[in-house]
Design a protein that fits this description.
The protein has 540 residues and is α/β, with parallel strands linked by helices. The chain has 21 helices and 9 strands. It has a 9-stranded parallel β-sheet.
């Protein structure tokens, strides 16, 4: 071999995946460790590497759950109906920042933010408008909400109650993943200890009262969107998951009583094979953690997850390229065995997705599901030397990183030390440096750019929207029984005091929150009642 040929071979051998995993030129049997059959198992059986159902998509396709949230509840309801008419099979709601932060639309702190990144929900009357004419006992609803998750769940329950639908018939998910907020997003309100206690309370309540509802969606998605690698996404998500399970077990809940209401939420980025391997590794890691740490039954070791295609991978330049990116990501999610999927609109790097873009994103899922053949057989990439080697290596590296978090004392301590934040920040910086150096190619941005300015998509009149929303809130405040609201809020504060560390036995808090919602207390008022009992979290 000539020196030139040897150099070329060395360069080919030096490729890496986006997470820094070495990628060889070719793979064979020697690249797959012994014991593959045991690591794989059978579809629907421990350790669930090949999927959580024996027949997977032969039995039923994944839930097509497009994310939607516009300034007002009525506008969002209209988008829900459009997507359902187009064949969507589940609902997913984005809330504006004031709602996420427990701030009412008429609060001065909400000025300029009402309805901008999702729907504004102040009282249960807004929730009635959001869910108007939708069959709540037949369609599941996911709500991306964390600090105020218990209040939004209570609102959903009260809407159903006032429409004559029993809470046991409701199905859906609240994200309710507060640890990820301290790490990657920032929409926290209360300190970690009472926040975790409230999460455990929602586990208890859902298991007892709303058995078809997922009490949490433990999110790697936002960790990945903040700049984490696939390895960090896995390790940090499962570190948080173990903290939640430990919190609930320590609160006296048997693991098998609530594990079935735990769900997960992952991102799917552009490297098809790494993403498929990530999902397969995730199922195996979770199954073994639940079995080894908590003695969970096999059924409680099943990792059920929703996937969203990567928002940060979308580009404002040449936005139609995003259609292809989203298609590759949707295919990876399906090959990886997701339970539900949101596909991003091609124009989301520019504005809230238009109806055309949202419909095309749904059609992308439908084409992958019904035309690509991906649903014909379970885990179609099983046995691929490359995919199995990637799966094993992702599992190894994620568990090694998880062990670092465990050595610190778990997620809460790692958050206090800034470990997650520093690790993610470094990964985000390194990725950006590779993009700027041209080592990581982004078509239309750092290669094959055409120099054209991104298109302009008209924005709503947010000032008018804010006036309309605050007017509706004023009407509710004027028409409700003020004394009943004050009594209900006082009950929330009294019950919440028992959720502080060392407070002793805790009385159920969710019934008090539901009573406050029923009395037409607002999201902000309920949040303030909890804050008065628990204080406000301020990062060090």
């Amino acid at each position: 071999m000539s020196a030139a040929d040897a150099g070329a071979t060395a360069r080919e051998a030096a490729r890496t995946s986006p997470s820094g995993l070495d990628v060889r030129l070719a793979y064979g049997p020697a690249d797959v460790a012994d014991g593959l059959a045991e690591r794989l198992g059978e579809p629907g059986r421990f350790p669930f590497t090949r999927g959580v159902q024996p027949t997977m998509y032969r039995g039923r396709l994944w839930t097509m759950r497009q994310y939607a949230g516009f300034g007002t509840a009525s506008e969002t309801n209209a988008r829900f109906k459009l997507l359902l008419a187009a064949g969507q099979t589940g609902l997913s709601t984005a809330f504006d920042l004031p709602t996420q932060m427990g701030i009412d639309s008429d609060d001065p702190r909400a000025l300029g933010e009402v309805g901008r990144v999702g729907v504004a929900i102040d009282t249960v009357e807004d929730m009635h408008a959001l869910l108007a004419d939708l069959p709540l006992d037949k369609v599941s609803t996911s709500m991306t909400i964390n600090a105020t998750a218990s209040t939004l769940l209570a609102m959903h329950i009260v809407v159903a109650e006032e429409r004559g639908i029993p809470r046991a018939a409701l199905s859906g998910t609240i994200q309710n993943d507060i640890l990820k907020e301290y790490i990657a997003r920032g929409t926290y309100v209360y300190p970690p200890a009472p926040s975790l206690a409230l999460v455990a309370e929602t586990f208890r309540f859902c298991a007892a009262e709303v058995p078809k509802w997922n009490a949490i969606s433990i999110s790697g998605y936002h960790i990945r969107e903040a700049g984490a690698t696939a390895v960090q996404e896995l390790a940090f998500t499962f570190a948080n998951a173990m903290a939640y399970v430990r919190q609930a077990v320590d609160a006296g809940l048997p693991v098998d009583d609530f594990a079935g209401s735990l769900s997960f939420f992952f991102a799917c980025h552009n490297d098809l094979f790494e993403e498929v391997a990530k999902f397969r590794a995730a199922r195996r890691i979770y199954a073994r953690l639940m079995k080894e740490r908590f003695g969970a039954s096999d059924a409680s070791c099943r990792l059920r997850f929703h996937t969203q295609t990567g928002g940060v991978t979308l580009t404002a330049q040449q936005p139609l390229n995003n259609v292809v990116r989203v298609t590759v990501q949707a295919l990876a999610a399906a090959l990886g065995g997701t339970q539900s999927l949101h596909t991003n609109g091609y124009d989301e790097a520019l504005a809230l997705p238009t109806a055309e873009a949202a419909t095309l994103a749904l059609r992308t899922q439908q084409i992958v599901g019904y035309e690509s053949g991906v649903a014909q057989t379970v885990d179609p990439l099983a046995g691929s030397y490359y995919v199995e080697a990637l799966t094993d290596e992702l599992e190894r590296r994620a568990l090694a990183l998880l062990a670092q978090v465990d050595a610190m004392g778990g997620s809460v301590e790692a958050i206090a030390r800034g470990f997650f934040q520093e690790e993610i920040g470094r990964s985000a910086y390194e990725f950006q440096m590779r993009v700027e150096a041209g080592e990581t190619v982004i078509v239309g941005v750092n290669r094959f750019a055409d120099g054209e300015a991104p298109p302009i998509i008209p924005a709503p009149d947010f000032s008018a929207l804010e006036r309309e929303q605050t007017g509706r809130l004023a009407q509710v405040r004027a028409s409700r029984d003020g004394a009943a609201v004050e009594r209900a809020l006082a009950a929330v504060r009294a019950q919440a005091a028992g959720y502080l560390p060392g407070a002793g036995e805790r009385a159920p808090l969710m019934p008090a929150i539901i009573d406050a919602v029923r009395a037409r207390a607002s999201v902000g008022e309920i949040s303030d009642a909890l804050e008065r009992a628990w204080g406000k979290y301020r990062p060090g």
